[in-house]
């Protein structure tokens, strides 16, 4: 494999939740396209050092605090880049295009209106997805499920997967419809762990494919304006998720879990090694707690997914 060109780039988000993008010069590589500000690492620089230097040079601001968001390796004809993208949590100054480049604050939902380099698709997904992903656990009645959903939404959960293998298709549809209404009111996103065709009846934000469905599909089963989430357990399933052009994946079990106590966990090192090999936001699932998020960021993951840590009475 060719040595990639190392590039640090910043996802800078303001108090209104808008993202800062800049336009690349027309005569540059990927010229005329929009980008996340940043640039090449100088020799002996770490990603964060390069980020701070480039952002000061290009935008005139000082990064106070940032955390890793996603690392994307991409092969362009004649050039391989490894984009080390950071989420800026605090900065001082007012950004402006110091090199004459147009810069613009863009609403999250409008990012799709701009053309970015091909490498950027996973970055755009990583920016739009939260760092916690709740998967529903057991419930005795739809009322109980809704009550638990409300608790989780109150605690800040903004991405929900309705997993209910105990329900038949009709019962699942009814609960999904109620979940969708509750999620819409809370500005949260709902993914259906169900046949993707159900999206025609329940207009949720996307679907999550379990292992059986992942194996059954050969093409992306949902349109590009819906999320495609995939359950992965090893490199083969992550690669299959990439083939389906999935937007996000869960990788499990990372630790021992109460729901699958007999399955050997992957552990943190395997989590890091596996996600390096795909271009997708990946959530750590299995024996997680919200406090594991910083560790997950450091290893290149999107955040934490869980049943028991979010779905509790
Ligand atoms: N900064 C940035 N670069 C990106 C993005 N997406 C993407 O494919 N790239 C590619 C384009 C380039 O091949 C490479 C960045 O290199 P660059 O030449 O812009 O780096 P630089 O800012 O140090 O530029 P320069 O000082 O050498 O002119 O990464 C992105 O979102 N932001
Ligand atoms: Mg640059």
From TrEMBL:
Gene3D superfamilies per the UniProt record, alphabetical: Aldolase class I (3.20.20.70), Nucleoside Triphosphate Pyrophosphohydrolase (3.90.79.10)
Keyword vocabulary terms for this entry: DNA damage, DNA repair, DNA replication, Hydrolase, Magnesium, Metal-binding, Mutator protein
Reaction catalysed by this enzyme: 8-oxo-dGTP + H2O = 8-oxo-dGMP + diphosphate + H(+); 8-oxo-GTP + H2O = 8-oxo-GMP + diphosphate + H(+)
The residues forming the signal peptide are none
Gene Ontology BP annotations:
DNA repair; DNA replication; thiamine biosynthetic process
The UniProt record gives the binding positions of 8-oxo-dGTP as 24, 35-38, 120
One protein family per Pfam? NUDIX_4
CDD domains from the xrefs?
NUDIX_MutT_NudA_like, TMP_TenI
This protein's source sits in the domain of life called: Bacteria
Q: Which GO terms describe its molecular function?
A: 8-oxo-7,8-dihydrodeoxyguanosine triphosphate pyrophosphatase activity; 8-oxo-7,8-dihydroguanosine triphosphate pyrophosphatase activity; 8-oxo-dGDP phosphatase activity; 8-oxo-GDP phosphatase activity; metal ion binding
The EC number on file is 3.6.1.55
Binding-site positions, Mg(2+): 38, 58
- Annotated ranges, domain Nudix hydrolase: 3-131
| Cofactor (UniProt) | Mg(2+)
Which protein family is it in? Belongs to the Nudix hydrolase family.
Official protein name in the record = 8-oxo-dGTP diphosphatase
């Amino acid at each position: 494999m060719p040595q990639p060109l190392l590039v640090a780039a910043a996802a800078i988000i303001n108090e209104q939740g808008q993202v800062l993008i800049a336009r690349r010069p027309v005569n540059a590589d990927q010229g005329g396209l929009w980008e996340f500000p940043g640039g090449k690492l100088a020799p002996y620089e770490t990603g964060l050092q390069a980020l701070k230097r480039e952002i000061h040079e290009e935008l005139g601001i000082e990064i106070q605090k940032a955390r890793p968001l996603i690392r994307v390796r991409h092969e362009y004809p004649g050039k391989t880049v490894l984009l080390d993208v950071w989420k800026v949590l605090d900065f001082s100054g007012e950004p402006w295009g110091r090199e004459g480049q147009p810069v613009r604050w863009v609403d999250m939902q409008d990012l799709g209106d701009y053309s970015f380099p091909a490498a950027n698709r996973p970055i755009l997904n990583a920016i739009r997805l939260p760092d916690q992903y709740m998967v529903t656990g057991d419930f005795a009645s739809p009322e109980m499920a809704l009550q638990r959903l409300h608790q989780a939404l109150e605690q800040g959960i903004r991405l929900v997967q309705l997993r209910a293998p105990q329900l038949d298709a009709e019962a699942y549809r009814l609960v999904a419809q109620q979940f969708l209404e509750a999620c819409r009111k809370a500005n949260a996103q709902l993914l259906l762990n169900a046949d993707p065709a159900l999206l025609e009846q329940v207009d949720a934000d996307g679907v999550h494919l379990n292992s059986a469905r992942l194996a059954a599909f050969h093409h992306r089963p949902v349109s590009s304006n819906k999320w495609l989430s995939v359950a992965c357990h090893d490199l083969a399933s992550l690669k299959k998720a990439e083939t389906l052009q999935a937007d996000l994946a869960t990788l499990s079990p990372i630790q021992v879990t109460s729901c699958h106590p007999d399955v050997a966990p992957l552990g943190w090192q395997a989590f890091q090694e596996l996600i390096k090999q795909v271009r997708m936001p990946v959530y750590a699932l299995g024996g997680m707690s919200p406090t594991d998020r910083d560790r997950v960021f450091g290893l290149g993951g999107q955040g934490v997914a869980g049943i028991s840590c979010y779905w509790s009475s």
